Amino acid sequence: MSSTRRDFLKRSMALAAAAAVTNPADLFARQTGNIFKSKSKSPGPDKMVLTFKPFEARMKHVFTISGSSRSTTPIVLTQISYQGYTGYGEASMPPYLGESTASVMDFLRRVDLSQFSSPFQMEEILTYVDSITTNNTAAKCAVDIALHDLCGKLMGQPWWKIWGWTNQDLISTCATVGLALTPDGSLDKPKIREKTKETLEFNLIKVKLGNSEEVDKGMITTIREVTDLPIFIDANQGWPEKGYALEMIEWLAERGVEMIEQPMPRLLLDEAAWLRDRSPLPIMADEACQRLSDVRNLHGAYDGINIKLMKCTGMREAREMISVAKALNMRLMMGCMTETSCAISAAAQFASQLEWADLDGNWLIANDVFSGMKVVDGYITLEDKPGIGVEPL
Ligand code: MG
Fold first, then answer.
1. Which of 22, 76, 163, 343 gives a 20 to 30 Å CA spacing to 138?
2. pTM for this structure?
């Protein structure tokens, strides 16, 4: 018998055996090896179906960072259905990312999953999705998360476990105390005390700085009237002068601050390296670190990177960024946009690999549409639920 004929028979037998099983793990086994790959473009019952709808997340507080304020965040929710299973995903579009509900919906309309015979062709599918446009990272992420959720469900396992990680003794996530100003532009201290009190169920506070020196220092001294919890700072590129940035960091180090995120504008890498050499606190890249290709360039200029699914196109690339950062001895954190528990639960799958987590996006919104990752006494907890572990509410 020719080897081609023998392979054909082997595949046919595998196909017949696979058709008889319904267990998700067996489904995974039968989809490997591309034996079902079809050139056909016509959708059939075994094709993945991507659907999506816009959603407006309402924030509990008006959210102010250096440069902007807002009370809602546009989101697009996605689903990929396949053989009775549904994976959920999400794109969140804070205005500074340059995406909108319209741009995400336009992108998703261009995604043709009918050309793929199996969701387990994840590399091929997500490489194709990434190739559709240059940017649209949040839209790509919405497909990536839904595909991961779907494949995890088909396998019957959560991603933290598929990747060989743990859900034991996970780190705390921080809660953000946003800036509050009075109409005349000065610090609204009563409001900041109130916001600080609301974060006391957490073990770590994140504070957004990068305003005037008076406002920045006033934020910290007002928070310190309420709590001694460790703080980390996100300056959102707000300190463009390196000497001033160093003075601020030294001042903050004496006040229980343990880490600084993105003190200087993202393109100033030489200045960031100067600052890192002198800073008493670790300095993490956020705006400077969008995707996998950025990580190596930041080595030496920053102590570590803040990975966000919406910036890096999702879980597949985030997993790769973690490997590269670890190989370069860089420190790791994960952050989020304003997101529902869907994208937050996707990010939480990585919790065991991180030194810091800033995954309070679902806690900041008043109208969550998923149940998923829970924060207990400030700590991230991950259940043994398949995929990203979410249920629609
Ligand atoms: Mg940041």
1. 163
2. 0.86
